Amino acid sequence: MLSIFFLLFQIAGLATSIHAILNTRTAQGAIAWVVSLNTLPVVSVPAYWVFGRSKFVGYVNAMKDSSLSMAVDKEKAYESFTPYIVAEPIKFPEYRAIRTLSNSPFMGGNRVELLVDGKNTYNSIEEGIRRAQSYILFQFYILRADESGNRFKNLLLEKARQGVEVHILYDELGSGHFSDAWLRDFHEAGIEIIPFNTTQGAWNRFQINFRNHRKIVVVDGRETWIGGLNIGDEYLGKDPKLSPWRDTHLHIEGPVALIAQSIFWSDWYWADKKLLSHLSWKPETAPGLQPGEGMDVLILGSGPADELETASLFFTTALNAAKKRIWIATPYFIPDAATSVALELALLRGVDVRIITPRKNDNWFVRHAANVYLSNLAGMGAKIYFYEKGFMHQKAILLDDNVSLIGTVNFDNRSFRLNFEVTGAIADTGFAAEVEQMLLRDLQNSTELTQYDLARQGFWERLKARGSALLSPVL
Fold this sequence. Notes:
475 residues, Endonuclease, Chain A, 20 strands
């Protein structure tokens, strides 16, 4: 029986090797999988079907299945966007490539508010929910049934009793299990609350490697919130191990909120196989703005269902466009080959490259793997900073004096290829100045690593860094 068991795994390893050759993204990755699948099939076959794939099966097909019923509404929506589409935002020479890649343009007529840390973000979202008259779309990677979760639960229940439609979407891997009683309160109020259903479909049954990392709130199609914060007490600094918690979010009013709405709408259809037909798709300029006023904003949805590696290509293109500076604040800095090259080229051009990452991290492997990449860039002249005041979870990038990127994307392979993410790109010098001041305050709470060189570190530090970096494709 033992011989038969191993023989079956050997056959499975051989068959899986063929799948790896045909589908693995890089030649190096395909070789690594083929070798391991045929030498250690008992371990490698299950590992491959959990961690090996880079494409999320079924999501695109689900959209195609509903395309006929959506076609008329989509055409009307796109026509209504035309007056707000920006031909080319200020000083953004790579816009054509980004426009083609993202399939969503920069749109004018928006107002963007920079929200620093949990208290300001939660208060802003609460105020927006209270303004809702028709519907609320509420999506988070992590949604906890703690004090913070109950704060929003009670508020959403109140709005539902007022006749507002409420739809809640969460990632079942990030959020964990909710009690039946907690969920029953939503259902009894007529609120739909469902998981993203990452593992639905025959080919996704064991695929826990893909996650919906998006954080999106939309109110009446007029305003949206996106950024780094989830819903949980730790985001208010109540986790003693990771406090204080440093994070950044965006509140956006204006026509581009409908792009965030469309991302939620697609995710909901995948999860529930039902179209949200009651949503408004009429764009409106942010309150108080006249035609031609406001900020130019692009909202980018990216994920493993995309035909191209949208996030990686987007960030690589944006980095290559920088002429003066690239300031990156991220909790997880494990860049892929393309973004590493873009940063190296920027340094060769004389661009001011600064990277802020937390000294205290919630992922041991990421913390040590990052040292490999930080050392390489420091050797070329990049300025490296360790944030000291608690855990920094924000995902913010400042390019030159006019472009800011804030959203859910970490600077790692998981966000670039394995997670469903959302990013806000704001082409506005005034807003960029706000982001600059925010990051300068963060630098005051950071320690610059002068002449940082991993090769000069002790044996165990080098081993931990190099060994952890081997796991970078799945970290």
